[in-house]
């Protein structure tokens, strides 16, 4: 009896909760931003068919449980089978299946066949970043190969291929698309499986190393959309984020024109350390003549940091991405960074700092090294490497030999959301979530203490 | 050669002489079944704890610092693998298969008792290897239970050195154990049935276990092949699955391998695996329903055919796990069609279970609660499968919480409800004592309602776009704020369900000592295991004489019979036969004649 | 397919004992042979999946065909000889003759051991010639497939050695007839598997 009532109530509750979840809490499809209404239609058809079956069978079962519960003197009916009924039910089920499958296959055919006029875009995934490539004026993407990937050619574009020279490369997690234009996405991966998902576009596809997969859609709404990775790709899977900005054709073209082509990135004028040196005097007052840092002035060691990292951080300070509210010392740095007036000046400065000899900073932090090692090996080493030497590939700076007190401060800032939560600090946001691997201040000190024991391989080799 | 009943041929029962040979190195299928069951449940508890750790992280992301991203992915992986293989497969086939096959077939033991014993011990070794990976440097693998290359052996994945190697070795050892056990089950069912027990007189439990075992024998090789090739890739540097990849900025020596090939092999095993778990559950639940409804299972033949057809179809649907994997998209048409066709025989089984209740005389004992609960959760989980199987709907929903909710309903909650139904149902036979009915029903309510509270909202989060396998959801523009509330509520429900499983263990351990002494046949069941001379059955099962079977397993409420059940070994002369296709005792026109 | 016909039975209609002492649908042979039959299907699936993987992997661009050493022909002869000798032993046992059965049975296993030694020699020759496991997928598959085949033979040799010990300790051949029969079938199977593998390996 109680079970019969419970089943009835559950059927009713499921239906009621469906509407509560979908319409009150809004746990339903995000508003569609691509021309894939057919997918939503198929979902709705399936929902109605299955919803009907769910209610019908369970209500019938609840009725049976109530109606035929054991009563004194009652006896069950003897009925081995009823073939006609079974056939009837099978036909009925088959009709339901056809009803759902037909639109499914119809729209799948639409998904599989890319319209001729669709424009090509390439998405390249690697642990744990998105990058994008646009065909240049020729409309053709140049050939590329993982074996050719290097810091200066992160896409592995074949330098011999004339088609690739005018390809526009966007080494940034954000891409842009013109609205109402068919977009044909070509996917590659440099390391493991990833999956490019924008919930509002409805479609997704894996990126597989060694082959090129694809999907297509037509963005229909101007706006900014989150890109999620939805194929487990290692420890940083959940922080692999990007954005697609859908904008008008004009805005899109204007933006595209400002992006460098592959040829331009390859032929960029080398940064000039000498020019950086001329500007460095003002930095030296806090960071020291050789970038050794100064605890008393809250200035971290900057020697040993690669040019790409220093350059990015200086840009962040200049543009207000770093040094915001709550970050007192960062605010000081932001003010100082404005003395660098051009992108070229920033590059020159970063190049000069990269010439400093990398002497490990003085150790000031103590902690439980064994615990620090455990946390570091499990969570940090995936990007910053086992020896703390960092790599451009994961956008992770070297940690070994860095001012330990500074790392403690920054990890605290990441945990508190003081650093990394600026919308444009894509890499900092990853640290916000990874920093939760350290439960508290004490564990942060443990990790810093462990990092103090590391010797970067580049130092060990005397590079 | 004069014919001896097959089950008595070459009867070399290895009779135990000491406690050790009786309970440790035992060749008695019933002891082996309990060893299998105990080990599977123990390792399943580890997986349960792992899932609760994950839920704590998801429900209260900044409050408790129980696990970091590294151990989160290790928990995801180990939870999945343990539950699917080391708990469900081992418990249904190694546990219930071992216990029920010889008893329900009227045999004294399995055909190869020694190999059967070996099967358990090899299984135990595989479990120990798997557990060992928690204690090696780097910990267990965190590659997800699907173990997709190339990430399994790259530095960005937890446990990429020793963890994955131990996992692959453990799987290979498990497959050896399963093959030894599986050959036993299949040959026992085919060759050691007692006199008169035709295949079509077998209880559906045996049909389910039999077909599932055949599926296992034919599907596990795919996993073995994949595991061997992946071991070569990981340890010896071959490139079967490994393409040219970059690890932490350094190009590795691999070249040209195909990650998708691994996925095909994995799912060629992985999809039948779903039915390796589901078919025994289908079978067991059919017998529990029929017995407690005092009514024959409705449409027995159709139920057998459905089991066989589902088993066959399960080998041609595997790529529906790979719609968005980057494989050739034209495969989508074929696999979506075959996948949705499976809905027809599966739906038929559901109809027939419900129709078994129709006009029955339902005894609402605890196993019946669990069995009916199973029908409900299975309908729910099966219907959401129609979303995911329909290729185009998989585009928005794959790799979201919808998938998580779907497979937990259909192959987590549903089989577990059957396991509990079966454990309570056969507990009196296994132990000779009754369980505590009230506690069992309380256990049912907590489990049934609690799991629904966990998984129902999860479907909606998935439709909303919440991705699976995320340590933290982070900030997105599209997720509504209530998403985190849902995760918190789900976690509370999960903790409740996890804790309420204590009721089961308390019940079992209490009943083993203090439960009421059980009748040999407390439910009035027809199948042979309830007709043994002793309860619990002793080694050899049947005393001097093997049973002879005169009828099918479902002669319940036969008109004119002395009682509302006729055991399979009751000669036809002792009970009436019915010609009627449909006999309703309440509108019996022929009563005067009887 | 009589057993398929039984699937249409309406079991509730027929009461009483059906079939003789042997249950309907059971195979008229020893359980060990039924088990072996199933195991051969399992092994067939294992080798088929390796072979399918081989063909799929072959289509990828980095495949470089391997020149197989001529010694494989000699090895093939040894394995075939083993199979023939096992068959002879089996025929004798089937006719109830005891003479030379042990010797033939022993010879069958020894041929197989020689085959395995030959295969290992092929491996070391290949390695001496610079064909290592890792760089070329064709070589990887060569080592893998031959290795898996040897692993299956070793499983058979375990049964063979057990049986030989029993024969050596004075058992009559008729006592181990089942083992001889199953070994023979298993060897034929592995010979066929090898011939197929050999054909594939040397033609691609």
Compact description:
The complex is a heterotrimer of chains A (463), B (594) and C (204). Chain A is of the alpha+beta class. Chain A is built from 15 helices and 10 strands.
C-alpha Rg of chain C (nearest Å): 21 Å
Q: What is the terminal-to-terminal distance of chain A? A: 79 Å
Mean pLDDT across every amino acid position of chain C: 91
Q: Mind summarizing the main beta sheet of chain C? A: none
By CATH, the architecture of the largest domain in chain A is named Orthogonal Bundle
Query: Percent range for helical residues of chain C?
Result: over 70%
> Using DSSP, what is the number of strands of chain A?
10
Strand order of the largest sheet of chain A: 3-2-1-5-8
How many structural domains can be distinguished in the coordinates of chain C? 1
CATH topology (fold) name of chain C: Four Helix Bundle (Hemerythrin (Met), subunit A)
Oligomeric organization of the protein chains: heterotrimer
Radius of gyration of chain A: 29 Å
Strand content of chain C: under 5%
CATH architectural type of chain C: Up-down Bundle
* Amount of helix of chain A: 40-55%
Largest interface: A-B, 123 and 131 residues
Explain what this protein looks like in three dimensions:
The complex is a heterotrimer of chains A (463), B (594) and C (204). Chain A has 463 residues and is of the alpha+beta class. Helices cover 44% and strands 12% of the residues of chain A. In chain A, α12 (404-416) runs antiparallel to α14. Chain B has a domain at 521-578. A two-stranded antiparallel sheet of chain B has the order 1-2. Chain B is mostly helical. Chain C has a single domain (31-61, 70-203), classed as Up-down Bundle (Four Helix Bundle (Hemerythrin (Met), subunit A)). Chain C is flat, with a radius of gyration of 21 Å. The two termini of chain C are 39 Å apart. Chains in contact: A-B, B-C. Chains B and C meet through α5, α6, α7 and α8 of B and α2 and α5 of C.
């Amino acid at each position: 009896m109680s079970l019969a009532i419970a089943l009835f109530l559950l059927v009713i509750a499921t239906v009621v909760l469906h509407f509560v979840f979908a319409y009150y809490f809004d746990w339903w499809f995000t508003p569609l931003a691509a021309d894939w209404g057919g997918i939503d239609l198929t979902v709705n058809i399936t929902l109605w068919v299955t919803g009907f079956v769910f209610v019908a069978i369970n209500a019938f079962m609840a009725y049976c449980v109530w109606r035929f519960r054991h009563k004194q003197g009652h006896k069950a009916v003897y009925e081995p089978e009823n073939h006609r009924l079974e056939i009837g039910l099978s036909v009925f089920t088959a009709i339901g299946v056809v009803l759902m499958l037909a639109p499914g296959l119809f729209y799948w055919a639409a998904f599989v066949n890319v319209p001729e006029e669709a424009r090509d875009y390439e998405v390249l995934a690697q642990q744990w970043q998105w990058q994008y490539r646009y065909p240049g004026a020729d409309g053709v993407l140049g050939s590329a190969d993982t074996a050719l990937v290097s810091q200066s050619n992160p896409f592995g574009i074949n330098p011999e291929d004339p088609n690739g020279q005018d390809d526009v490369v966007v080494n940034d997690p954000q891409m842009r698309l013109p609205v109402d234009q068919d977009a044909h996405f070509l996917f590659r991966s440099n390391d493991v499986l990833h999956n490019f998902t924008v919930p509002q576009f409805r479609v997704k596809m894996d990126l597989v190393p060694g082959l090129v997969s694809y999907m297509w859609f037509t963005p229909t709404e101007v706006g900014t959309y989150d890109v999620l990775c939805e194929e487990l790709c290692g420890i940083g899977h959940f922080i692999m984020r990007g954005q697609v900005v859908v904008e008008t054709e004009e805005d899109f073209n204007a933006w595209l024109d400002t992006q460098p082509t592959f040829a331009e990135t390859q032929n960029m004028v080398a940064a000039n350390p000498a020019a950086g040196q001329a500007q460095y005097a003002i930095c030296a007052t806090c960071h020291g003549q050789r970038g050794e840092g100064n605890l008393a002035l809250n200035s971290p060691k900057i020697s040993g940091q690669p040019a790409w990292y220093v350059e990015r951080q200086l840009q962040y300070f200049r543009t207000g991405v770093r040094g915001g509210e709550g970050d007192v010392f960062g605010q000081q740095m932001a003010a100082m960074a404005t003395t660098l007036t051009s992108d070229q000046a920033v590059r020159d400065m970063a190049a000069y700092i990269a010439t400093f000899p990398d002497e490990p900073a003085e150790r000031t932090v103590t902690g439980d090294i064994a615990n620090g090692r455990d946390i570091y090996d499990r969570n940090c080493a995936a990007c910053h490497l086992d020896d703390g030497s960092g790599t451009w590939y994961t956008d992770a700076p070297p940690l070994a030999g860095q001012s330990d007190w500074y790392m403690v401060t920054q990890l605290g800032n990441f945990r508190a959301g003081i650093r990394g939560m600026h919308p444009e600090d894509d890499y900092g946001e990853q640290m916000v979530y990874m920093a939760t691997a350290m439960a508290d201040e004490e564990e942060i000190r443990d990790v810093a203490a462990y990092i103090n024991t590391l010797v970067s391989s580049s130092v060990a080799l005397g590079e | 050669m004069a014919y001896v009943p097959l089950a008595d041929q070459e009867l070399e029962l290895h009779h135990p002489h000491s406690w050790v040979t009786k309970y440790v190195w035992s060749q008695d299928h019933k002891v082996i079944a309990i060893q299998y069951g105990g080990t599977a449940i123990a390792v399943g508890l580890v997986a349960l704890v792992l899932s609760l750790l994950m839920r704590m992280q998801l429900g209260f992301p900044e409050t408790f610092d129980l696990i970091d991203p590294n151990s989160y992915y290790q928990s995801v992986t180990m939870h999945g693998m343990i539950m699917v293989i080391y708990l469900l497969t081992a418990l249904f086939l190694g546990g219930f298969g071992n216990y029920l096959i010889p008893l329900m077939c009227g045999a004294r033991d399995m055909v190869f008792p020694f190999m059967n014993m070996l099967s358990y011990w090899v299984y135990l070794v595989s479990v120990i290897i798997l557990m060992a990976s928690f204690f090696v440097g780097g910990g267990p693998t965190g590659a997800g239970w699907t173990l997709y290359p190339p990430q399994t052996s790259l530095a960005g994945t937890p446990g990429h050195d020793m963890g994955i190697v131990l996992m692959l070795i453990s799987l290979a050892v498990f497959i050896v154990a399963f093959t030894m056990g599986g050959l036993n089950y299949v040959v026992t069912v085919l060759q050691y049935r007692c006199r008169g027990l035709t295949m079509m007189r077998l209880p559906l439990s045996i049909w389910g276990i039999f077909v599932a075992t055949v599926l296992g024998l034919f599907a596990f090789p795919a996993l073995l092949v994949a595991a061997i090739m992946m071991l070569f890739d990981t340890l010896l540097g071959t490139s079967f699955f490994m393409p040219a990849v970059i690890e932490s900025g350094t190009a590795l020596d691999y070249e040209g391998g195909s990650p998708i090939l691994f996925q095909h092999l994995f799912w060629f095993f992985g999809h039948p695996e779903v039915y390796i778990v589901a078919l025994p559950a289908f079978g067991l639940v059919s017998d529990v329903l029929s017995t407690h409804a005092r009514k024959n299972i409705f449409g027995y033949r159709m139920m057998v055919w459905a089991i066989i057809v589902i088993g066959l179809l399960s080998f041609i649907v595997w790529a529906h796990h790979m719609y968005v994997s980057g494989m050739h998209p034209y495969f989508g048409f074929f696999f979506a069609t075959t996948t949705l066709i499976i809905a027809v025989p599966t739906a038929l089984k559901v109809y027939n279970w419900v129709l078994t209740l129709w006009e029955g005389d339902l005894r609402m004992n605890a196993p019946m609660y669990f069995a009916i609960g199973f029908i409900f959760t299975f309908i729910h989980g099966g219907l959401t499968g129609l979303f995911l199987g329909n290729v185009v709907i998989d585009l928005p929903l794959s790799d979201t919480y919808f998938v998580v909710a779907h497979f937990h309903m259909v192959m987590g909650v549903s089989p577990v409800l059957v396991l509990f139904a079966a454990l309570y149902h056969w507990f009196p036979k296994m132990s000779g004592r009754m369980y505590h009915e009230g506690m069992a029903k309380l256990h049912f309510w907590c489990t049934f309602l609690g799991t629904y509270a966990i998984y129902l909202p999860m479907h909606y989060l998935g439709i909303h776009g919440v991705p699976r396998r995320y340590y933290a959801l982070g900030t997105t523009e599209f997720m509504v704020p209530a998403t985190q509330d849902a995760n918190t509520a789900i976690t509370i429900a999960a903790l409740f369900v996890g804790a309420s499983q204590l009721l089961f263990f308390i019940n079992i351990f209490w009943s083993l000592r203090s439960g009421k002494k059980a009748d040999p046949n407390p439910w009035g069941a027809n199948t042979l295991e309830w007709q043994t001379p002793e309860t619990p059955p002793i080694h050899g099962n049947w005393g001097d004489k093997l049973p002879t079977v005169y009828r099918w397993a479902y002669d319940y409420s036969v008109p004119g019979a002395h009682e509302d059940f006729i055991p399979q070994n009751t000669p036809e002369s002792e009970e009436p036969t019915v010609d009627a296709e449909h006999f309703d005792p309440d509108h019996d026109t022929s009563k005067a004649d009887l | 397919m009589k057993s398929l016909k039984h699937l249409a039975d309406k079991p509730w209609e027929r009461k009483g004992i059906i079939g003789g002492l042997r249950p309907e649908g059971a195979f008229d042979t020893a359980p060990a042979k039924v088990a072996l039959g199933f195991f051969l299907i399992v092994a067939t699936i294992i080798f088929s999946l390796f072979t399918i993987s081989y063909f799929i992997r072959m289509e990828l661009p980095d495949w470089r065909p391997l020149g197989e050493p001529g010694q494989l022909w000699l090895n093939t002869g040894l394995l075939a000889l083993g199979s023939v000798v096992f068959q002879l032993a089996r025929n004798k046992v089937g006719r109830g003759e005891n003479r030379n059965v042990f010797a033939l049975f022993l010879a069958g296993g020894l041929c197989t051991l020689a085959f395995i030694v030959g295969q290992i020699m092929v491996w070391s020759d290949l390695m001496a010639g610079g064909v290592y496991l890792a760089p070329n997928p064709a070589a990887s598959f060569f080592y893998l497939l031959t290795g898996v085949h040897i692993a299956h033979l070793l499983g058979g040799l375990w049964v063979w050695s057990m049986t030989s010990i029993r024969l050596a300790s004075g058992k009559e051949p008729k006592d181990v007839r089942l083992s001889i029969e199953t070994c023979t079938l298993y060897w034929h199977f592995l010979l066929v598997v090898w011939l197929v593998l050999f054909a594939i390996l040397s033609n691609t």
